[in-house]
Amino acid sequence: MHILIIGEYSGFAKNLAIGLRELGHKVIVFASLDGWKKIDPGNDSVLYPVVHNFKIGKFEIKRTWIFRGIINFFHFKRDIRKYKRYFDAALIINYEFLRLRWDFTRALFSYKDLSKVMKDESKIYLSACGDDIFYLKYLHHFRYYFQDNYTAKNFSSRRLKKIFYQTVSMVAGVIPVMYEYAASYRYFAHQYHLKVFPTIPLPIHLLPNSFNNEFREKIVIFHGLSRKSKGGEFIVPALEKIQNDFPDRVEVIMRGGIPQEEYLSILAKSNIVVDQCFGYSYGMNALYSMAMGKIVLSGNEPECEQEFGRNVPIINIKPEVNDIYEKLMWLISLSKEELELKAKEMYSFCHEFHDAKIVAERYIDLFL
Known about the structure:
The chain is α/β, with parallel strands linked by helices and 368 residues long. The chain folds into two domains: 2-200, Rossmann fold, CATH 3.40.50; 219-353, Glycogen Phosphorylase B (Rossmann fold). It contains 14 helices and 13 strands. The chain has helices at residues 12-22, 65-80, 111-117, 133-138, 149-155, 158-170, 179-189, 232-245, 260-268, 284-290, 302-308, 321-332, 336-353, 356-367, and strands at 2-6, 26-31, 45-47, 55-56, 59-60, 87-92, 118-128, 173-176, 219-225, 250-256, 272-274, 295-298, 315-316. Strands 3-2-1-6-7-8 form a six-stranded parallel beta sheet, sandwiched between helices. The protein has a five-stranded parallel beta sheet with strand order 10-9-11-12-13, sandwiched between helices. Helix 1 (12-22) links the parallel strand 1 and strand 2. Helix 1 packs across helix 14 (356-367) and helix 8 packs across helix 12 (321-332). The longest helix is centred in the C-terminal third of the chain and has 18 residues, at 336-353. It is globular.
């Protein structure tokens, strides 16, 4: 099959594309470099820089990003000509990566563009991941959640609303990647005559013998500082407390706003990773960690395991400083042998359930 993937979130597109290619399919990814993470989707990807305003010294000239956007738009139009009636299926990672038909300041697909590159019998699917309108509307149903005013305002913009409702009316269906999105879209599915497919977990490309977790006298705990929705206001104090209380037992590393390559190099030196505490489920950072055999603290509520239909070894944490602290204290009290056993359990789970090729097979079954 010839498959189009539109957009990138934390390596989701990159890893899924690798799995699909391993199965013998031709995959083209159209994306940006995913902001400061600088994630390159790899071979057969068409990338466009994130546009910014022009600067003269320290002075930023407002709205000049539009000119850069127009230039990227014309490059985009040139790039898609070679793919006329080419694709058998398309996966939109998030509708943010689409544009309205008359918006020529963004190098993104409109539905008219998609109609030109898709074969007559092909289908377009929407992946439910990241923030979107249905997910944000459903948040208050969860026992705990995070919603900031900026995100809510951004996704209530007239432009994104038009793109979203056009998308849900035109796609063949929605594919959730975890419980939160499955619950959100199922809630609105009947109202909008929308088909919600079974949840397919996030993929990660796994290399043989990638286990890398050696426990020494000091246990290294890593947290990648990120957006507020990760729960840093609870995680950071818990990590500071564990460092102060057990200075001879733990070393805490907290870094943020770094490219993925640097992030992974720090991850390789760690034993325990504290990912996020607002989610019922876990994301790509947890997968990168488990792929190396790291012990992960993240979202893993009973609803997550029920959605996936299996036990998940991730240690669930809530947005409470004491909850995070107590679970870290319990971990560092374990023997080296017990920690190694937990690390191997994480590693095996990741290989059995999230391997990119295994996940890609589920997408192909759906596309066919």
